[in-house]
Amino acid sequence: MPDHASFLQLLGPVVLALAAVLWVIGLVRVLRATRPGASPRHASQALPALPHQRQTPPEREAVELTPAERDAFAGLVRQLGDRR
């Protein structure tokens, strides 16, 4: 070990080299996963951490507005439309 270099100065290039190797490994994994020939995850393969998703949409809900509410909503739409 050179006398003029401290332990941290010698450790720096080792840490940088290790970080570069890990970055290259990560990059290769990402590129392999996104290449056109890679097999995508099938819909039948459920992810275990996600809850089951419903297959049908929720039922639509509708509420009748009173004439005063309709007038207020129309005024709001006009007010917001004037901002453009």
Question: What is the element layout, followed by pairings?
Answer:
Elements: H1 7-34, H2 67-81
Unreliable sequence segments? none
- Please report the distance between the alpha carbons of the first and last residues: 71 Å
Q: What percent of residues adopt helix (DSSP H or I)?
A: 40-55%
Number of E-state strands: 0
How does the helix and strand content classify structurally? Answer: mainly alpha
What amount of the residues lies in strands? Answer: under 5%
The largest pleated sheet is described as:
none
Number of helices: 2
- State Rg: 30 Å
Please provide the ordered H/E string of secondary-structure elements.
HH
Sum up the overall morphology in one term. Answer: elongated
Mean pLDDT: 85
